[in-house]
Design goal:
The chain is an alpha/beta fold. Helices cover 45% and strands 17% of the residues. It has helices at residues 11-45, 82-99, 116-126, 157-167, 178-194, 207-210, 227-233, 236-259; strands at 61-66, 76-77, 80-81, 103-106, 130-137, 147-151, 174-176, 198-203, 216-223, 265-267. Bound molecules: zinc ion. Zinc ion binds next to loops.
Length: 284
């Protein structure tokens, strides 16, 4: 059968077809560009890489020290033995920090005795990013309550030498203010969340803060001799607040330190700084 229209297309139709093809190509190109632009805005809206909370090669390690233990019960008041409460708090702090991506090493996680020097040695060996020792206070005056945190800027000579070697300081005479900042951060966060009386931060050469080559602080979480505070300290809700404050304090310190690892370490100015007191107070 003869085809109804077998004539070749006229010049006019060729031009129309070329125009349509050109228009279609242009449309596809424009559409493609629009699609890419849309996709890029979507990609911008969704973070492509989830930044980890800690951006160093390894998560920081915090050494938690539950004060006393074994035959050393620490303070005893109102039926509470300090060593039991410090361990309870330390275990809570371990869990809290662990859930926030921080590695934790405990000096003790059972009721055992551990010499103070050994506690400091654990922090040194682990090269901890922070060392936090937990204690409870007592006073001969039953009205005294609140929280206080201890630190020292004057490490023992062996700790100073280790700090000099690690941080490339010119002499072993090293002033270390990292403990002061850790103590400040702990004190500030804990008092804010618990509304406990703020007794401030204090400098004292306790073994666990002076023999440690790492940022160290010792927090007295409240007075067992204050009736109301002692009752609160045994309650789960108050313990959670306390631990939340300590955890926030540690984390804020670690973040500040990570951005500037050498922050707080300087050469000791013998003329301006008080000479190092080698007398150590061993029993917080
Ligand atoms: Zn104690």
């Amino acid at each position: 059968m003869k085809k109804p229209n077998s004539k070749p297309p006229s010049r006019f139709w060729i031009q129309v077809r070329a125009f349509i093809q050109c228009f279609a190509s242009y449309g596809a190109l424009t559409g493609g560009i629009c699609a890419l632009a849309w996709l890029s805005t979507r990609l911008e809206a969704v973070p492509s890489v989830q930044l980890r909370p800690w951006d160093l090669n390894a998560e920081p390690l915090v050494v938690i020290d539950a004060g006393h233990g074994g035959h050393d019960g620490g303070a005893v008041a109102g039926g509470t033995i300090e060593k039991n409460l410090t361990l309870e708090l330390a275990l809570r702090l371990r869990d809290e920090l662990t859930t926030k991506g921080i590695r934790v090493k405990m000096t003790r996680d059972t009721d055992v005795f551990l010499p103070l020097e050994e506690r400091a040695a654990i922090a040194n060996k682990m090269e901890a990013a922070a060392f936090v020792s937990l204690h409870l206070n007592t006073s001969a005056t039953p009205e005294v309550d609140g929280i206080e945190t201890y630190f020292t800027e004057q490490k023992t000579l062996s700790a100073q030498r280790a700090i000099q070697a690690k941080w490339g300081m010119p002499t072993p005479a090293v002033k270390d203010q990292r403990g002061r900042w850790l103590a400040e951060s702990l004190q500030q966060h804990v008092c804010k969340i618990t509304h406990a009386a703020d007794r401030g931060i204090k400098q004292r050469n306790y073994v666990v803060v002076s023999q440690t080559q790492v940022p160290s602080a010792l927090i007295e979480c409240g007075f067992l001799t204050h009736e109301t505070e002692a009752l609160k300290l045994k309650k789960e809700d108050y313990q959670k607040l306390l631990i939340s404050g300590i955890s926030d304090g540690v984390i804020q310190f670690l973040k500040a330190q990570q951005s500037q690892p050498k922050r707080g370490i300087s050469s000791l100015n013998i003329a301006a700084d008080v000479p190092a007191d080698e007398t150590e107070v061993t029993a917080p």
